[in-house]
Design brief:
Elements lengths: L21 H6 L3 H17 L2 H9 L5 E5 L5 H10 L3 E2 H14 L12 H22 L21 H9 L2 H10 L17 H5 L31 E4 L11 E3 L21 E5 L4 H6 L5 E5 L6 H8 L3 E8 L2 H14 L3 H5 L4 E5 L11 E7 L5 H4 L13 H5 L1 H15 E11 L5 H18 L3 E5 L1 H4 L18 E3 L10 E8 L2
Parallel strand pairs: 3-11, 6-7, 6-9, 7-8, 9-10
Antiparallel strand pairs: 1-4, 1-5, 2-4, 10-13, 11-13, 12-13
Length: 502
């Protein structure tokens, strides 16, 4: 019979890194957390109670639409999508047109009530300035006068310095000695070691590194509404859905996924999936046959591909600043365009690698799509990589409106008189949307005497009300915007159509 021997129990020890300390997990913030904290503060102040619904939609996987490739098995692809329950967007638009003709309701014009957003942004600016002051001057219970806002430009108020400059040095020193102020003898210079250093000393007047610092509150100052330039806003009179364009979507509330694209007999892929809101800017650009079109910030290529699928473009120039982004764009075109090398590359489809602020083919394009870099609101709250809210990219993020306005202003110069462009972002920020449009219009008028007309697309967006959720036009001055909404979780996408006057 076996005897039970003594059993020695050893407690298992956690390996290094296997268990995270609770205080590290509790206090650690990633880039997505920083983005959401910023949006809660900013968008919560701008949109009020509606921000909660937008917030949930942003954190939920968004819907797609399917763009059917006209250079593949078009009829078979349309039949497959319809068998899966998808609806051709053209049929929804036709129903909306009939419904609007039979109803007496008028679509409200944009820009009728701006005071509400202006007041909210002013309050947000003051709030942010108070935070910045409190971070430098913490409250100590003493009655100490603090500045209303911080200044980071190293400029000095000359009016405040004049009384100090007029006070003689001898009088101030004599007064100090008379009042028996104790001097720190440890800081006195011994003459035997030389006094030359006294003449080389320069008192500090700024903090190293602050010359390039951008205050968070400065970001909100880009939003301006006072128009000191000729401003004309008129309704867009017509909208024609391209005859050969096929876009498929699921009805509102249906979040089904599309099947992946398949290879057709011609060697190209059957359909391209994209965010539904991204289809609106090229649609409202209304490219006509024989026109020369520029996509100023073309990558990854969905909007460029949609314009080519209309079969109207005579020549499309796709521009982007990075070679890697252009390579992605070329790959998309090779996968979806039949006889890419023989019929398209270098002929009807041109690629350009340049900063959109520096393009110089002035007055050469009939239509321009300006889908500028932005904070990409849906991306930054869900993806850590390439996140604009990374701490090392704060200066880049706060100066995004400057970049956007410079790109838009230069693209207005590239337009032929009478030509149109559509400016778009995938952001909810009023600063990057209406604020940037205002800055660009002001810039081109002041520097180049270019006047423009804003096209009100409120009647056109009403045709897509069965597919998208739009921001009320009264809250926008220069454009329209698709807002995230769970039953129709597209966007965000802001767009503004601008025509250069002749």
């Amino acid at each position: 019979m076996l005897k039970i021997r003594n059993v020695l129990l050893l407690q298992k020890r956690w390996k290094s890194g296997a268990k995270r300390r609770w205080n590290v997990l509790q206090n650690k913030k990633n880039n997505c957390d920083r983005a959401m904290d910023n949006f809660d503060d900013f968008y919560g102040s701008v949109y009020g109670s509606r921000w909660k619904n937008m917030r949930v939609a942003l954190l939920t996987r968004h819907k797609y639409i399917a763009l059917v490739n006209n250079f593949g098995d078009t009829e078979q692809t349309c039949s497959m999508l319809e068998m899966d329950g998808a609806i051709n967007m053209k049929s929804l638009i036709n129903l909306a047109q009939e419904r609007l003709k039979g109803s007496s309701e008028t679509v409200p014009n944009q820009g009728q009530s701006r005071h509400e957003i202006e007041g909210k942004l002013d309050a947000l600016l003051r709030k942010q300035q108070e935070r910045e002051v409190a971070s430098i001057y913490p409250s100590s219970g003493e009655d100490v006068s603090m500045p209303q806002q911080l200044r980071f430009d190293n400029t000095q108020d000359k009016q405040k310095e004049e009384p100090n400059e007029l006070a003689p040095f001898e009088q101030s020193l004599t007064k100090a000695l008379e009042e028996e102020v104790q001097l720190d003898e440890h800081r006195m210079v011994d003459p035997q070691f030389g006094t030359g250093g006294l003449y080389e000393y320069i008192p500090a007047h700024s903090i190293k590194g602050m010359e390039d610092w951008v205050a968070e509150s400065d970001h909100y100052k880009y939003y301006q509404t006072s128009a000191d330039f000729p401003l004309k806003i008129e309704p867009e009179t017509s909208f024609h859905f391209p005859e050969h364009l096929s876009l498929y979507t699921y009805e509102m509330g249906n979040c089904s996924d599309f099947k992946g694209p398949k290879k057709c007999l011609t060697g190209v892929l059957s359909h391209f999936m994209m965010d539904g809101a991204s289809a609106l800017p090229p649609l409202f650009l209304q490219v006509q046959p024989g026109e020369r079109v520029l996509d100023a910030c073309a990558s990854p290529g969905g909007k460029s591909l949609l314009m080519l699928q209309t079969l109207h473009v005579d020549q499309l120039v796709c521009n982007d600043i990075q070679e890697s982004r252009l390579n992605k764009l070329r790959k998309v075109m090779q996968e979806y365009l039949f006889d890419y090398k023989e019929r398209w590359a270098g002929k009807r489809l041109l690629f350009s690698q340049s900063d959109a602020r520096n393009l110089d083919g002035y007055e050469q394009f009939d239509k321009i799509l300006v889908d500028v870099p932005c904070t990409t609101d849906r991306h930054v709250v869900n993806v850590q990589d390439n996140n604009i809210f990374k701490p090392t990219r704060i200066k880049e993020r706060l100066r995004i409106p400057e970049l956007q306005a410079a790109i838009l202003a230069n693209c207005l110069r590239l337009l032929r008189p009478g030509g149109s462009l559509v400016y778009s972002t995938c952001s909810l920020s009023p600063i990057q949307n209406d604020g940037v449009v205002h800055m660009a219009l002001q810039k081109v008028f002041a520097e180049h005497n270019i006047t423009t007309t804003i096209k009100d697309l409120s009647q056109q967006t009403a045709l897509f009300s069965d597919v998208f959720k739009f921001e009320h036009p009264k809250g926008l001055k220069y454009g329209q915007m698709v807002v995230p909404y769970l039953p129709a979780n597209f966007g965000p996408m802001y767009f503004s159509k601008i025509t250069r006057n002749t």
